[in-house]
Amino acid sequence: MPTIKPRTPAPSLAVDTLAHGAWKLHEQRPDTLTLAVFYRGYHCPVCKVYIGELAGKLSEFTERGVDVIAVSGDSEERARKSAQEWNLGSLTIGYGQSIDSMREWGLFVSQGIKDGEPDQFGEPGLFWIKPGGDVFYEVINSMPFGRPHLDDVLDGLDFVKENDYPARGEA
Q1: C-alpha angle 52/88/141, rounded to 5°?
Q2: Cα angle, residue 170 at apex, residues 14 and 51 outer, rounded to 5°
Q3: Which of 58, 81, 103, 149 is the most exposed place for a label (fewest CB within 10 A)?
Q4: Rounded to the nearest 10 degrees, how much is the dihedral formed by the CA atoms of 115, 51, 91, 101?
Q5: Half-sphere exposure (CA, 13 Å, Cβ side) for 38?
Q6: pLDDT tens digits, 101-154
Q7: How many CB atoms lie within 10 A of CB 155?
């Protein structure tokens, strides 16, 4: 599994989205950064809560100049069910991420073990990507729980902006 370090270029990411067509990381031009949140998929009740909270805080990220996308390996049909049943509003939902892409991003990949789970799926990850394409911050989980609280993520963004704080963990 590759290690992605802050201050290095993010891997490529190109996914289809439910409402915005094809989405490519290298084409994004956020004022501050792109927040890419990788989630397990429709089958995950913990993701339902986390991605729902993300959708509820979307305006707070947007006000800070952050473009947000939530990405899974789900099919379009499963992603659409998530968006509708989880009331995700205008959150950009990317779907169809390949297992190879998940591994390029350093995400853990799990085998499905119960009904309703895909044969394989990616575990959660959260990345801040600077406008030039470099990774600034990352969190990778091997389980659906233990993700950073989104209020902490927002507070961290504010701290970084106010203090011109550099990316860390590059050594």
Answers
A1: 40
A2: 45
A3: 149
A4: -60
A5: 31
A6: 999 999 999 999 999 999 999 999 999 999 999 999 999 999 999 999 999 999
A7: 11
